[in-house]
Design a protein that fits this description.
With 277 residues, the chain is of the alpha/beta class. 43% of the residues lie in helices and 14% in strands. It has a single domain (9-276), classed as Alpha-Beta Barrel (TIM Barrel), CATH 3.20.20.370. It has 12 helices and 8 strands.
């Protein structure tokens, strides 16, 4: 960006799960065309990968990254099912029975071979919090030149968002790993936003909560993780707890009040390509 145009508060609005189902894909695109969503991350092993890759090529203003998957779906290496849960993944990591780097590197290659030039990396279910996965992601970032990597540690959020105590406890536990994650990523020359938000309120916010979040953003660059989508039959059949909530998130991301809030609070909506200039 040109000198003089950099706001003290900048926000990347990034949707996970591009490629999961076609109705999720279409919801992400609608949130970009009609709302504040600027970026998304693509699942190379998603059932609707080809559809998402085509939408990406047809909509170059949508900034696309890689949503690296070690939980759910099938491996790109051998076609076998990946671990069904984070707990199952941790067991396989302890046994050394999963080829983390090879699997994730193959996913990045598939995305690139589909004509997509990814700008950022994150992981499904935040699995790169686990040290072996984090090391693999940092290595892939360095080797591929995809420098932006998510640090999924939520900014502090006061009451009023309806966050369950258990979710707050998990977020606190994750924040204890922040320094270690920073050291690993910094050693590989990775870049991350100053702040992150969205983990604690995934699936439980409406327009009012999003307006409130925008009004309370700290100075610097924040990534807001979201999961918009249309809740059609394809999504209803999919093995995910996020179904109707995706439609609510889409409604919030496209609400005029949200764009007005960004303007009133001096928040510049950007993507990772903007930050790389």
């Amino acid at each position: 960006m040109r000198a003089g145009l950099v706001a003290s508060k900048r926000l990347v609005v990034n949707a996970d799960d591009f490629g999961y189902t076609t109705d999720v894909n279409q919801g992400i695109l609608d949130a970009h065309r009609n709302g504040i969503l600027t970026a998304t991350t693509l699942m190379a092993n998603g059932d609707a990968f080809d559809h998402a890759a085509r939408l990406s090529r047809e909509n170059p203003s949508l900034d696309v990254g890689c949503h690296l998957v070690l939980v759910g779906g099938r491996s790109l290496l051998d076609g076998e099912p990946l671990p069904a849960s984070v707990a199952d993944l941790l067991k396989r990591l302890l046994r050394g029975s999963i080829r983390v780097y090879d699997e994730l590197a193959s996913q990045v290659r598939r995305i690139q071979e589909a004509g997509v030039r990814p700008t950022h990396l994150d992981t499904h279910k935040h699995t790169h919090i686990a040290p072996p996965v984090l090391r693999a992601v940092a290595r892939i970032s360095a080797e591929s030149g995809i420098r932006w990597v998510r640090r999924p540690f939520d900014i502090p959020m006061s009451g009023g968002y309806g966050i369950p105590g258990g979710k707050r406890a998990i977020n606190f536990a994750l924040r204890l790993l922040r320094r270690h994650a920073g050291r690993v990523l910094d050693a590989r020359g990775c870049r991350s936003t100053d702040h992150f938000a969205g983990f604690q309120i995934t699936g439980r916010y409406h327009t009012a909560e999003l307006v409130r979040l925008i009004g309370s953003l700290p100075d610097g660059v924040t990534e807001f993780m979201c999961h918009p989508g249309h809740c059609g039959e394809e999504l209803r059949r999919a093995p995910t707890r996020l179904k109707e909530s995706r439609a609510r998130e889409l409604e919030a991301l496209t609400a005029p009040e949200v764009r007005l809030a960004a303007r009133n609070y001096g928040v510049q909506i950007v993507n990772y390509r903007d930050l790389s200039v």
